[in-house]
Amino acid sequence: MFGRWGPAVSASDGGVRPPCGGLAGQTVVVVGGSAGIGLETARQVRAAGGDVVLAARNAERLKQAADELSPLSTAAFDALDTDRLEHFLRELPGQVDHVMVTAGSPSYTPLADIDLADAGRDFGGRIAMMLAAARAGREKIRAGGTLLFIGGTGGRRPAVGMAVMGALTAALPALTANLALEVAPVRVNLIAAGFVDTPLSASLLGEQLEARREQLRKTLPIRRVVGPADVAALALHIMANGALTGATYDIDGGQQLVAH
Fold this sequence. Notes:
By secondary structure, the chain is of the alpha/beta class. Helices cover 42% and strands 17% of the residues.
């Protein structure tokens, strides 16, 4: 890690940030902050006057993000390693205002092809990652700050290959609501995104990417594809609005309203 960590900023009301008070002078930890939604969120935090701490699995991409954003510090590790995730959060100097966890990738595998051990890791690992972040985050996030997770909406419609993702899609909002009670007054929220045009989406779709984009442009009520900046803007609103906790916020451009 490398850093330029300065003194913590205290709120006048004893640490609880006022609703919609902006992010100037606040510190946001982004786990999964080297690409896609995480990187764009970090960019918007910096543009809003906040500081960032970046963590990601890919050290090379993490360095590129750090060169662009001048974070307080960085750390390269796999967030699904829950011991490492908890250690990272607990070793942050002082308290932070918000923690966002975007790590993890979807798994679309038909039942006949599922490796049961992999399926268990995909499901259990994601749940354990959220539990670990909450357990460590309750000690490191200021009262009124938020622990924010990224999930999805794709599993709400049953389909071949969606068994594990459907189970996760159903489980994460319930877990978020329960954690909001357990770690209060730290707030816990979940963003459930539909298709977002990120490098991860490109890697999953390969040559089918442009066809998927065109389909969404024609069918979504917003008539365009949702991008990382859209999700990041929602993330910043959730961070800044101190009245939001225990909830799941969909952002999919109306994808759930139309046929696939």
